[in-house]
Design brief:
There is one protein chain. This protein has 387 residues and is of the alpha/beta class. The protein folds into 2 domains: 74 residues, no CATH class; 300 residues, Aldolase class I (TIM Barrel, Alpha-Beta Barrel), CATH 3.20.20.70. The strands form 4 sheets. It has a 3-stranded parallel sheet with strand order 10-3-11, covered by helices on one side. Helix 12 links the parallel strand 8 and strand 9. Helix 3 packs across helix 11. The structure holds ligand V47 and iron/sulfur cluster (SF4). The site of ligand V47 has 22 residues, from strand 7 and strand 8. Ligand V47 binds next to strand 7 and strand 8.
Length: 387
């Protein structure tokens, strides 16, 4: 039997000698704490919050890359996933006013928009002759569009293209719809599922610490509500994603606590498909004076997420936000999913100053980018079945 398995990018080592290799590497590290954490990772043990913090505080980029590379290969082998998708952003009018948001505009603003059902179906019809498999629908929290408006939209999209997977509405949009309709979370989600909703995207999580939430998105639904909506969705058979907005005023402890709450929920339900770290982008919002964290910090953060979230199968590098090159490099720091082809259908990040102003990649482009990084492209559906 050939025991050679890929461990890091293009070079290959024998797994039986992994401990020897790591022992060799670890002799160059003078810090006992980080050595012990590295040992636990190699043994495949769960990290405590304290150990996660040690990684953030003391783990240098090369070590984190090697450790996250080992873990990502245990979970996902050499595969890097992507899908064929497009977005619909129904409106950027929003009743809230998150300080980091560059997207929402008040009604009457020349940059505000609001699509009706027919205009959104027109976007769906544009993809009729293509083999997209998923539509991602997220927008602002519109003051008057209620749950029936969105349920009807889902019904019409499904009627037009039954096989299209509908991943729609952040927990924040859902909370507003349910409250307005006087429904419980369970009733609201069951209704949308009945109309054809298939899964829930990860937005609105931001950072779960209540004090920070007061400072950056005071009006938004609480962390408890966000978690409760996702937990209920999982129980109803709707999988979801989780995000974390990082690189603003949070500390490493806030990031670890955020991920710990997700890991606890995932232990209970198993319903999260992917974790998506979202780097704070500074253009056109009121927190721009903070600047942005470096690409080194992005890569360290991906790696710690991969190492800490041992029960969430996929770590997504959302390429329209961080750019193709960072997304490509991130594959060597624990990520295994690059999201999808997008086809220039999202404005959320271009308005916040994203690297890619007109995000669109063909499956050929994504596959080439993945191969160049030493990984194996895997086109997936929305449940991560390989197509
Ligand atoms: O919740 C808003 C973030 C999120 C900024 O589930 C910003 O597959 C950075 O959740 N800088 C919405 N981030 C987008 C989202 C998402 C994206 C891609 C894939 C999936 C998925 C979900 O965008 C918001 C907020 O955290 N955001 N403004 C900004 N200036
Ligand atoms: Fe509204 Fe979402 Fe922007 Fe907050 S992040 S202001 S909820 S669109």
């Amino acid at each position: 039997m050939n025991s050679e398995v890929p461990v890091q990018g293009a070079f290959f080592i024998n797994f039986t000698s992994l401990r020897d290799l790591m022992n060799g590497l670890l002799t160059y590290i003078n810090d006992n704490e980080i050595k012990q954490v590295a040992d636990k990772i190699i043994a495949g043990s769960r990290l405590s919050a304290e150990e996660g913090l040690i990684l953030y505080n003391k783990g240098d980029l090369p070590l984190l890359g090697i450790l996250a590379g080992i873990t990502r290969r245990r979970i996902n082998g050499n595969k890097a996933y992507f899908n064929r998708n497009f977005h619909i952003e129904p409106t950027n009018k929003c009743v809230y006013n998150c300080r980091f948001c560059s997207y929402h505009k008040p009604a009457g603003d020349p940059e505000s928009w609001e699509y009706n059902h027919e205009q959104m179906l027109e976007i769906v019809r544009r993809f009729d002759s293509t083999d997209v498999t998923e539509v991602h629908i997220v927008g602002g929290v519109h003051p008057t569009h209620d749950i029936y408006y969105y349920a009807e939209l889902i019904r019409k999209i499904k009627e037009h293209r039954p096989s299209l997977h509908i991943k729609a509405f952040s927990a924040i949009e859902l909370d507003y719809m349910f409250t307005k309709a006087g429904m419980t979370i369970e009733e609201g989600l069951a209704l949308l599922k009945d109309y054809g909703l298939n899964s829930i995207p990860g937005g609105g999580a931001e950072i779960f610490d209540a004090e920070l939430r007061k400072k950056i998105c005071a009006e938004k639904s609480s962390s408890e509500l966000w978690l409760s909506i996702h937990e209920t969705a999982h129980k109803l058979g709707l999988p979801s994603n989780a995000t974390m907005l990082y690189g603003h005023i949070e500390t490493y402890s806030h990031r670890i606590r955020h991920m710990e709450l997700l890991r606890d929920l995932q232990d209970r339900t198993g319903g999260f498909n992917a974790f998506i770290p979202l780097k704070y982008k500074k253009a056109n919002n009121s927190m721009g004076y903070l600047g942005e964290v470096s690409v080194i910090e992005d890569l360290r953060n991906y790696a710690v997420a991969r190492l800490f979230l041992d029960n969430i199968p996929h770590i997504k590098a959302y390429w329209p936000m961080i750019g193709r090159e960072t997304a490509q490099i991130s594959l060597s720091f624990g990520t295994d999913d690059l999201d999808g082809t997008i086809d220039d259908t999202t404005r959320i990040y271009s308005m916040a100053g994203a690297e890619d102003a007109n995000p669109s990649m063909s499956t050929k482009d994504i596959s080439a980018l993945i191969r160049e990084a030493g990984f194996e492209p895997a086109e997936r559906d929305s449940y991560y079945n390989i197509k």
